[in-house]
Write a structure and sequence with these properties.
Shape: elongated
Largest sheet: 5 strands, parallel
Radius of gyration: 18 Å
Order of helices and strands: EHEHEHEHEHEEEEHHHEE
Number of helices: 8
Strand order of the largest sheet: 2-1-3-4-5
Protein backbone atom coordinates (compact mmCIF):
# COMPACT_ATOMS: atom_id res chain seq x y z
CA UNK A 1 0.00 0.00 0.00
CA UNK A 2 1.41 3.39 -1.01
CA UNK A 3 1.09 6.29 1.45
CA UNK A 4 2.06 9.95 1.18
CA UNK A 5 3.02 11.58 4.47
CA UNK A 6 2.81 15.39 4.53
CA UNK A 7 4.50 16.45 7.79
CA UNK A 8 6.94 19.32 8.40
CA UNK A 9 8.13 18.17 11.84
CA UNK A 10 11.35 16.28 11.10
CA UNK A 11 11.47 14.18 14.29
CA UNK A 12 7.81 13.20 14.10
CA UNK A 13 8.06 12.54 10.37
CA UNK A 14 11.03 10.21 10.78
CA UNK A 15 9.20 8.28 13.48
CA UNK A 16 6.04 7.96 11.38
CA UNK A 17 7.95 6.85 8.29
CA UNK A 18 9.84 4.24 10.30
CA UNK A 19 6.68 2.91 11.94
CA UNK A 20 4.73 2.82 8.68
CA UNK A 21 7.58 0.98 6.95
CA UNK A 22 7.57 -1.62 9.74
CA UNK A 23 3.82 -2.04 9.17
CA UNK A 24 4.47 -2.81 5.51
CA UNK A 25 3.55 0.50 3.86
CA UNK A 26 5.48 2.16 1.05
CA UNK A 27 5.87 5.77 2.18
CA UNK A 28 6.85 9.00 0.43
CA UNK A 29 7.42 11.98 2.73
CA UNK A 30 6.88 15.65 1.90
CA UNK A 31 7.53 18.58 4.22
CA UNK A 32 5.51 21.47 2.77
CA UNK A 33 2.22 21.97 1.00
CA UNK A 34 3.57 22.81 -2.44
CA UNK A 35 5.82 19.73 -2.45
CA UNK A 36 2.83 17.65 -1.37
CA UNK A 37 0.69 19.07 -4.15
CA UNK A 38 3.37 18.23 -6.73
CA UNK A 39 3.69 14.67 -5.38
CA UNK A 40 -0.07 14.16 -5.61
CA UNK A 41 -0.06 15.40 -9.21
CA UNK A 42 2.79 13.10 -10.26
CA UNK A 43 2.26 9.88 -8.28
CA UNK A 44 -0.70 7.64 -7.32
CA UNK A 45 -1.35 7.15 -3.59
CA UNK A 46 -4.03 5.28 -1.72
CA UNK A 47 -3.81 7.30 1.49
CA UNK A 48 -2.56 10.81 2.33
CA UNK A 49 -1.55 11.55 5.93
CA UNK A 50 -1.98 15.31 6.10
CA UNK A 51 -0.75 17.76 8.70
CA UNK A 52 -2.79 20.96 8.64
CA UNK A 53 0.04 23.34 9.60
CA UNK A 54 2.23 22.89 6.52
CA UNK A 55 4.36 25.76 5.19
CA UNK A 56 3.87 27.00 1.64
CA UNK A 57 0.30 25.75 1.31
CA UNK A 58 -1.53 24.77 4.47
CA UNK A 59 -3.29 21.47 4.86
CA UNK A 60 -6.84 22.80 4.56
CA UNK A 61 -6.00 24.65 1.33
CA UNK A 62 -4.37 21.50 0.01
CA UNK A 63 -7.39 19.41 0.98
CA UNK A 64 -9.72 21.85 -0.76
CA UNK A 65 -7.61 21.67 -3.94
CA UNK A 66 -7.44 17.89 -3.74
CA UNK A 67 -11.20 17.44 -3.61
CA UNK A 68 -11.80 20.08 -6.31
CA UNK A 69 -9.50 17.99 -8.52
CA UNK A 70 -11.56 14.86 -7.71
CA UNK A 71 -8.45 12.85 -6.93
CA UNK A 72 -9.40 9.51 -5.35
CA UNK A 73 -6.81 9.40 -2.54
CA UNK A 74 -8.19 8.87 0.99
CA UNK A 75 -7.15 11.59 3.44
CA UNK A 76 -6.37 11.15 7.12
CA UNK A 77 -5.71 14.51 8.77
CA UNK A 78 -3.08 14.14 11.50
CA UNK A 79 -2.93 17.37 13.46
CA UNK A 80 -2.24 18.89 16.87
CA UNK A 81 -5.34 21.06 16.39
CA UNK A 82 -7.88 19.22 18.49
CA UNK A 83 -10.70 21.78 18.73
CA UNK A 84 -14.07 20.65 17.46
CA UNK A 85 -14.08 23.47 14.92
CA UNK A 86 -10.79 22.30 13.40
CA UNK A 87 -12.00 18.70 13.11
CA UNK A 88 -15.29 19.81 11.57
CA UNK A 89 -13.48 22.07 9.08
CA UNK A 90 -11.20 19.24 7.96
CA UNK A 91 -14.04 16.76 7.56
CA UNK A 92 -16.26 19.28 5.76
CA UNK A 93 -13.48 19.98 3.26
CA UNK A 94 -13.28 16.30 2.37
CA UNK A 95 -11.05 14.54 4.89
CA UNK A 96 -12.03 10.91 5.44
CA UNK A 97 -10.76 10.76 9.02
CA UNK A 98 -9.10 12.99 11.63
CA UNK A 99 -6.48 11.95 14.18
CA UNK A 100 -5.09 14.33 16.80
CA UNK A 101 -1.48 14.46 17.99
CA UNK A 102 -0.06 12.88 20.03
CA UNK A 103 -1.30 9.50 18.85
CA UNK A 104 -0.46 5.82 19.20
CA UNK A 105 1.27 4.37 16.14
CA UNK A 106 -0.88 1.23 16.27
CA UNK A 107 -3.99 3.39 16.00
CA UNK A 108 -2.51 5.27 13.04
CA UNK A 109 -1.76 1.99 11.25
CA UNK A 110 -5.25 0.65 11.96
CA UNK A 111 -6.88 3.83 10.63
CA UNK A 112 -4.79 3.72 7.44
CA UNK A 113 -5.82 0.11 6.84
CA UNK A 114 -9.46 1.04 7.45
CA UNK A 115 -9.26 3.88 4.91
CA UNK A 116 -7.64 1.58 2.36
CA UNK A 117 -10.44 -0.97 2.83
CA UNK A 118 -13.04 1.75 2.37
CA UNK A 119 -11.33 2.96 -0.80
CA UNK A 120 -11.37 -0.53 -2.27
CA UNK A 121 -15.04 -1.02 -1.36
CA UNK A 122 -14.54 -3.83 1.13
CA UNK A 123 -15.37 -3.82 4.82
CA UNK A 124 -13.75 -7.08 5.88
CA UNK A 125 -10.17 -6.91 7.26
CA UNK A 126 -9.08 -9.78 5.01
CA UNK A 127 -9.04 -10.60 1.30
CA UNK A 128 -10.02 -13.98 -0.12
CA UNK A 129 -9.53 -15.55 -3.52
CA UNK A 130 -10.34 -19.24 -3.70
CA UNK A 131 -8.02 -21.07 -1.30
CA UNK A 132 -5.86 -17.99 -0.70
CA UNK A 133 -6.43 -15.53 2.17
CA UNK A 134 -4.53 -12.34 3.03
CA UNK A 135 -4.85 -10.45 6.32
CA UNK A 136 -3.13 -7.11 5.66
CA UNK A 137 -3.30 -5.77 9.21
CA UNK A 138 -1.35 -8.81 10.45
CA UNK A 139 0.57 -9.24 7.17
CA UNK A 140 -0.47 -12.88 7.07
CA UNK A 141 -0.96 -15.11 4.03
CA UNK A 142 -2.80 -18.43 4.20
CA UNK A 143 -3.12 -21.08 1.50
CA UNK A 144 -5.48 -23.94 2.29
CA UNK A 145 -5.57 -22.56 5.86
CA UNK A 146 -1.80 -23.01 6.18
CA UNK A 147 0.51 -20.01 6.68
CA UNK A 148 2.75 -19.03 3.79
CA UNK A 149 6.03 -17.35 4.77
CA UNK A 150 6.66 -14.40 2.46
CA UNK A 151 9.36 -11.75 2.38
CA UNK A 152 8.12 -8.17 2.81
CA UNK A 153 8.21 -7.26 -0.90
CA UNK A 154 6.68 -10.60 -1.88
CA UNK A 155 3.76 -9.91 0.44
CA UNK A 156 3.33 -6.36 -0.87
CA UNK A 157 3.29 -7.60 -4.46
CA UNK A 158 0.76 -10.32 -3.65
CA UNK A 159 -1.42 -7.77 -1.84
CA UNK A 160 -1.35 -5.43 -4.84
CA UNK A 161 -2.50 -8.26 -7.11
CA UNK A 162 -5.01 -9.58 -4.55
CA UNK A 163 -6.74 -6.21 -4.26
CA UNK A 164 -7.61 -6.39 -7.97
CA UNK A 165 -7.98 -10.10 -8.81
CA UNK A 166 -8.15 -10.81 -12.51
CA UNK A 167 -6.92 -7.31 -13.38
CA UNK A 168 -3.65 -7.08 -15.29
CA UNK A 169 -1.15 -4.78 -13.56
CA UNK A 170 1.91 -3.59 -15.44
CA UNK A 171 5.44 -3.84 -14.08
CA UNK A 172 5.44 -0.05 -13.68
CA UNK A 173 2.22 -0.12 -11.65
CA UNK A 174 3.58 -2.83 -9.39
CA UNK A 175 6.91 -1.03 -8.93
CA UNK A 176 4.99 2.09 -7.93
CA UNK A 177 3.15 0.11 -5.24
CA UNK A 178 6.31 -1.51 -3.90
CA UNK A 179 8.79 1.35 -3.86
CA UNK A 180 8.94 5.04 -2.99
CA UNK A 181 10.20 7.68 -5.40
CA UNK A 182 13.71 7.70 -3.89
CA UNK A 183 14.26 3.95 -4.24
CA UNK A 184 16.46 2.50 -6.94
CA UNK A 185 14.66 -0.40 -8.62
CA UNK A 186 16.42 -3.02 -10.73
CA UNK A 187 14.82 -3.73 -14.10
CA UNK A 188 13.90 -7.34 -13.19
CA UNK A 189 12.80 -6.74 -9.58
CA UNK A 190 9.10 -7.49 -10.14
CA UNK A 191 9.92 -10.62 -12.14
CA UNK A 192 12.10 -11.91 -9.29
CA UNK A 193 9.34 -11.39 -6.74
CA UNK A 194 6.81 -13.09 -9.03
CA UNK A 195 9.17 -16.06 -9.41
CA UNK A 196 9.44 -16.41 -5.63
CA UNK A 197 5.67 -16.13 -5.16
CA UNK A 198 5.02 -18.81 -7.76
CA UNK A 199 7.49 -21.10 -6.05
CA UNK A 200 5.71 -20.65 -2.70
CA UNK A 201 2.08 -20.58 -3.87
CA UNK A 202 2.20 -22.61 -7.06
CA UNK A 203 2.68 -21.38 -10.60
CA UNK A 204 -1.03 -21.33 -11.46
CA UNK A 205 -1.87 -18.35 -9.22
CA UNK A 206 -0.03 -15.59 -11.11
CA UNK A 207 -0.53 -15.30 -14.85
CA UNK A 208 1.80 -13.38 -17.14
CA UNK A 209 0.05 -11.44 -19.90
CA UNK A 210 2.86 -11.04 -22.39
CA UNK A 211 3.84 -7.44 -23.01
CA UNK A 212 1.30 -6.14 -20.49
CA UNK A 213 1.90 -7.41 -16.96
CA UNK A 214 0.62 -9.84 -14.34
CA UNK A 215 -2.73 -10.83 -12.86
CA UNK A 216 -3.82 -13.02 -9.96
CA UNK A 217 -6.34 -15.80 -10.60
CA UNK A 218 -7.83 -18.49 -8.37
CA UNK A 219 -5.90 -21.71 -8.90
CA UNK A 220 -7.82 -24.98 -8.81
Amino acid sequence: MKVLLAEDDTMLGKGMVHGLHLAGFTVDWTRDGLETQAALRDHPYEVLLLDIGLPGLDGLQLLQWLRAENRPVAVLVVSARDAVGDRVAGLNLGADDYLTKPFDLDELVARVHALARRQSGRAAPELKLGRLVLRPLRREALLDNQPVVLAAREYDLLLALMEQPGTVLSREQLESRLYGWQSEVASNTVEVHVHHLRRKLGSAWIKNVRGVGYKLVAAA
